[in-house]
Amino acid sequence: MNNFEKTRNKKVSEIIISLKVVYILLCIVSVVSNNGLTLEIKNIIIMYAGTCIISLLIIIYFSWVYYYRKDYINNSPKLIDIIETIFLVVIFVVAVVSTGAQASYYKLVSIFIVLIGAIQFGKNYSIALAVVSSLSILFIDIVASSPNMKLLSKYFENDLVLISALFMTAFILGMYVDTERQHSKELKELVNKDELTGLYNHRYFQDYLQNNLEDAQKQNKQVSLLFMDIDYFKNYNDINGHQSGDLLLKQIGKILKDSIRENDVVARYGGEEFAAILPNTDEENAIEIGEKIRSAIQNTEFVGQENQPNKNITISIGVSSYPTRAISKHQLINTADDALYRAKSFNKNRVESYHSVLDDLCKRMDIKEDTIKSLKTFINMINLKDRYTYGHTERVVIYVKWFAQMLKLKEEDQAQIQIAAYLHDIGKLEIPEEVLNKKGRLTNTEFQMFKDHPEVGVGLIQNIKPFESFVPLIKYHHERYDGGGYPDGLKGQEIPYLARMLTIADSFDAMTSNRPYNVRKSHEEGIEELRLNAGLQFDPELVEIFIEMLEKYKENF
């Protein structure tokens, strides 16, 4: 519920409570003023004692209303609302009977019952209350007038006017309230919906996720989040035009709505990105829903899909869950986003759940929690500044993991090279964002910034004791096997073994990824480039083993 709706409900509640206060006070005053003049002293004492008891009960009632139901606004009455209404009607009947029955001037207070019902629940409920109030008035008239029925006709005409006023008030005010609520609902839909796709928008997504997480925390339940991104959407837009792109977004939106469950919410997060909130859902079930969505989109025929790099329209999906993978809304969004980028980094058209490889690696190397936080801070800074560098880092980590397994390195060395892969480009934090993402030719000064990033990276971590062993890998991952690299011009076996491995993985991903300043090569072209530069830029023996590794894991790309 947004702030506007909360404020509105609070104001409506204040009006309803005020009406109830005035109504009940009128009923009490009517009883006291009418009977206090005619009763004997003894009876007056008894009456006032009863009035005090009633007043105490009324105070308790209003305390309950104020503290527990002041923001309790529903479109339809619940059992507690009906019981409360019966209580108000009974007070009305007692007041009328106590002040002259059919001759009572306080029948007019019945208008308050209708007003309260109309404002609280609209036309149907207020008309029902008008019927109950009218029947109560007529019943009192009939019972009080018997056996002398001539008295009935004396008050009946006046009561018919009152009853007509009750129904007119119920109908007109109730209809106005219904119209206002419908209009408010439609405005809310407009505010919360994305105009193009008809899905919920980013604003609603944030509010709904926050409310779900609060409920999940109270009820000890799980909430899962899917982050989804259409693969190669820019390519589709460029070839087929923006109108076709908009139509594709609408079609994808419909598939997403049809693929989720009744209580799930899917939103357009921005551009070609979508998000689905899955209440009371664990990670395993969320992955199943993600696979259902991915499969539905892959198996749908879209206009212009033959022009896509993979000859199809596909979607990549990242999954994270609260509280198993994240303990806050911000962390849940970040982890789902990380999982999405992992899915997009490897072949796309896949569902990836969030898993902190970094946490596992640091535990294996017995790195302390504070140091892990420092490492994650560096990575998050890269992530915020340059999405390419972050995605590139994630892919290089996977490459060196497989590479190290292929070489059967010691477990400690396997962990070390993977953590070094996470850290190898942190020196780019010192490069301005406009230079990092520049599409044109770099100036000599800008190129020097890139050449300096290994030493800058070393400067960032060299004073963190647990990171000391990573310094050679970060510093020398741009050295060449023939001695033509930087920063120290090392050659051959002078370059640390793990750094030579990292150089191959880093270069291969750089060649086969979309970059602002480079034309993307296919995997086959990347392999050919590795072989052409074996013995020049790369260790020739390691190149062949890396290519064997690529062949072994080709289904993962």
Automatic annotation (TrEMBL):
<dbReference type="InterPro" id="IPR037522">
    <property type="entry name" value="HD_GYP_dom"/>
</dbReference>
<feature type="transmembrane region" description="Helical">
    <location>
        <begin position="128"/>
        <end position="148"/>
    </location>
</feature>
<dbReference type="Pfam" id="PF13487">
    <property type="entry name" value="HD_5"/>
</dbReference>
<feature type="domain" description="HD">
    <location>
        <begin position="389"/>
        <end position="511"/>
    </location>
</feature>
<feature type="transmembrane region" description="Helical">
    <location>
        <begin position="160"/>
        <end position="177"/>
    </location>
</feature>
<dbReference type="InterPro" id="IPR003607">
    <property type="entry name" value="HD/PDEase_dom"/>
</dbReference>
<protein>
    <submittedName>
        <fullName>Diguanylate cyclase</fullName>
    </submittedName>
</protein>
<dbReference type="InterPro" id="IPR006674">
    <property type="entry name" value="HD_domain"/>
</dbReference>
<dbReference type="Pfam" id="PF00990">
    <property type="entry name" value="GGDEF"/>
</dbReference>
<feature type="domain" description="HD-GYP">
    <location>
        <begin position="367"/>
        <end position="557"/>
    </location>
</feature>
<dbReference type="InterPro" id="IPR029787">
    <property type="entry name" value="Nucleotide_cyclase"/>
</dbReference>
<feature type="transmembrane region" description="Helical">
    <location>
        <begin position="12"/>
        <end position="33"/>
    </location>
</feature>
<keyword id="KW-0472">Membrane</keyword>
<feature type="transmembrane region" description="Helical">
    <location>
        <begin position="79"/>
        <end position="98"/>
    </location>
</feature>
<feature type="transmembrane region" description="Helical">
    <location>
        <begin position="45"/>
        <end position="67"/>
    </location>
</feature>
<keyword id="KW-0812">Transmembrane</keyword>
<feature type="domain" description="GGDEF">
    <location>
        <begin position="221"/>
        <end position="356"/>
    </location>
</feature>
<keyword id="KW-1133">Transmembrane helix</keyword>
<dbReference type="InterPro" id="IPR000160">
    <property type="entry name" value="GGDEF_dom"/>
</dbReference>
<dbReference type="InterPro" id="IPR043128">
    <property type="entry name" value="Rev_trsase/Diguanyl_cyclase"/>
</dbReference>
